[in-house]
Each structure stands twice: as C-alpha cells, then as structure tokens.
Amino acid sequence: MDNRTIRFLKSRFQQYYKTAEISLPDYLPSREWAFIFYDDMPEKMMHRHKSFGSPGEALDYLYGMAPAHVYNSTAYYEYPDAKKMNDKNWLGAELIFDLDADHLPNAPRNYADMLELVKKESFKLLDFLLDDFGFSEQEIELVFSGGRGYHFHIRSPKVLTLGSSERREIVNYVSGRDLDFKYFFREVAMDGDFGAGSKTFKGVKNVPTKCMLIGHDSGWGKRIARYLADYLKTESEKKYKKDMFPELRKHEKVGDTTAKKLLRIATSEDGLNDILEHGRLDFDVRNFKEIAAYFMQESAGDFLHRFGASVDEPVTADIKRLIRVPGSLHGGSGMLVKKMELSELEGFEPLEDAIVFGDRPVKVTVSKPFSVQMKGKDLRVEEGIQEVPEYAAVYLMCRGVAEYGHRRNQPDTV
User: Fold this and answer.
1) Cα dist. 376→119, 316, 372 in Å?
2) From CA 79, how far away is CA 64, in angstroms rounded?
C-alpha cells in the first residue's frame, strides 16, 4: 500500500468517523481497546492496552486517528490499560460467537455466496441461543463483522464468569461434537399412549415398555426427530420402491418387508407427526430403535452439517478476546461493522447495507483482475487504470488489489 493510498483511505475513514454512530460497549472504562493503523501497513501492527474514561474521549480518538481496524475487549478489567495481561485483573467477559466463512466447510469462493452461507449458519446458532440456552433477544447482540461473517455477543450475567473450559463445552454442544445418538433412543414405560420415562411407573415394576425418542420436543432430540421425519418423507416420494431407504437398507435387519413398513409410516396420516410431536418410535417395525440409531450414526456428517453451528472455537473459548467495535469500519474491506436487531438478519444484505461510501468516480490502478458484487452490481476490474465508484475503490484498496490514482507512464485501460 503506497503513501497516496494510505492518505486517501485515512481521509475517507476520518470523514466517516466525524459523524459515525459508534456502539460503545457497556462499562466503557473497564474495556481494553486496540487499533491497527494504515500507517503501519502492511505489517498490521496492533496497538493495544488503551482505555477510555468517557464516550467523548473514545469518539474523539477515532476521529483524530482514523484507524484501519478498531477493537475492544470482550472482557471487563479493573485496570484495562495495564501493559501486562496479568496486571489487568480480569472481572468477567461476554460470551462471544464468531461465524466466519473461513471456518465453514466447502465455503464458496464467490464473496456474495460466501456471505449468504454464513448467514444461514447464523440462523442455526441463533436457534441454539434462543431455544436451547434460553437467552432472551435482549441479551444477544448481533453484529456483521464487516468482512466474512457475524459476531454474537451474549451479555447475560449467567455467562460473564464462565471459564475457557465451560465455553468450550458450549461450542461442543452447538456443533454437536461427541453427540451420542444411542442416548436418544430408549425403552420407556407405558403410560397411556406414550411412555412415562421409567421402567418402574406408579410403584409397579416391569410395566410394558415402548421405544421412544428422548427429548423430541427440544434441543438435539428435536433436531433428530425432524431429520428422521424429513428423511422418511423424502424417501417415500421417490418413484420406485426399490430406490427407497438406501441408507437404512445397509442395516442387516432392513429388507423389503421392513422397507414397506417404513413406507407406511412415512405416508400415513399420523406417522411422521407422531415422530415429531410425540417422539414415537414403536411402530410395527421390529428393532426400529436399533435401526434409527444406526441411521443417525451413519448419517452423522450430513445431520451435523445441517443442524450444527460452525463457530470459531478459539474465539468463544478466549476469555480475553478482542472483538471489532460495532459502528467502526473494517480496514480490510472498508465496510461497516454493523450492529442490528435479530429480526433484521433475514433481510440484511451486507454488500448493500454495510456500504458507507458514495458513488463518486475514483481512479485506481489495479494490480490484478478482481470481481465482486456490491450495491446490486457485478463489478469486475482488469489490471491497469480503472475508474470505479468510491465505495468500490475503497474496497479494492483495502483488499490490496488496487492503489489510489494512477502511476506515471501507466497506460489508461478504461
């Protein structure tokens, strides 16, 4: 990044910070702040161990320094500006989840498609946070990172003092790591139409039992019920019976007779609903518990890909993490680190809603061909001098594929 490019980006960032709405963290004086400046490029040296005593002090600093990247600590400290971590006196930390396309398996290379995929992952995590853990919407802060993903900040008092090991357990849960499918398929005591959960019921021993899906109405049990029901329904809609249930047919106890019984379950009026609503598995399929557990174990990869949330474990486990400040700009894209309501996630379009710069034309010298979709337009630039809208120019410069203006003796290719 040459000096002219650095001066241009600093001037545009400074203009933004002059009127920017920065979402300052709660307990501001207890937070450590850190910055990366364009003057330090390309080394990306981080300047940290800084604190602010008031909102005005923090905002004045952002405007005066126009940093490329802005972070604050997820932790609360007694002495946040202490130069050594052990001297800061840790008081607690938010629970943070980072969903980044870099950590998603088979993520597409196209930026727009990448962002769409990580949004879907965010909805999966949100389901865990609201339904499984029971956090309220007011306890969850959702932020687009300005780059390739989203951050979830949990500020419930229940999580502030959790250690790294407890936070890793939370990651294990939302990812489904070490999930034991056999746990969910059990014989339980009969009580009317459905089981009571114990082989000793109302003081009577050895009561009749039936196979049930444990926890079918919440958590991972609910997800297993949905996966089983969806599978049975999908297979039952195939044209030829011989092509149905190929995964189950791998089990030694599943032949044509059993497949026909599975088809009746999948096409009956109440079959799938009984699985979803009641966790029922006591159909006229012998050893269905064993067959279902086998199917889930064999399909674990697909199941966890569909329902597990792929979060960055080191970020969640780190109780002294630095995280981007909502309202700041991402120095690697020039886009907004945008805070939003949970209800806004569905309609949020990062490549439109997180762009803060205008359309005035700016000349840049492109070092290599590059393409991106921004503001609903497919932008492709070739090597050489190009004139592009300012928002695109900032993005290309931040990405390191263009310099501001044009070099001497460089032919214009526009």
Assistant:
1) 18, 34, 10
2) 24
Residue 379 carries which side chain, given as an amino acid letter? L
For residues 407 and 384, give the distance between their C-alpha atoms in angstroms, rounded to a whole number: 10
Partners of 90 in beta bridges: 77
Q: Which of 67-71, 110-114, 329-333, 344-348 has the lowest mean pLDDT?
A: 110-114
For every residue of 195-257, DSSP letters joined together read E-SSSSBTTBSS--EEEEETTTTSHHHHHHHHHHHHHHHHHHTSS-GGGS-HHHHTSTT--HH
User: How high is the pLDDT of residue 66?
Assistant: 96
Sole residue written with tokens 């209800």: 343
Residues 354-407: tens digit of each pLDDT: 999 999 999 999 999 999 899 988 899 999 999 999 999 999 999 999 999 865
- Residue 380 CA to residue 388 CA, distance in Å, equals 10
| DSSP-derived secondary structure letter, 327 | T
Give the helix, strand, coil percentages of the chain, each rounded to 5.
40, 20, 40
pTM for this predicted structure: 0.88
Residues marked as catalytic = 98, 100, 312
Picking from 174, 176, 125, the residue whose alpha carbon sits closest to that of residue 149 is: 125
pLDDT of residue 40: 83
Q: Which CATH architecture has domain 3-176+310-353?
A: Alpha-Beta Complex (3.90)
- Comparing CA positions, the residue from 355, 312, 310, 318 lying closest to residue 144 is 355
Structural contact between residues 84 and 64, judged by C-beta atoms closer than 8 angstroms:
no
Of 242-251, 314-323, 387-396, the poorest mean pLDDT is in 242-251
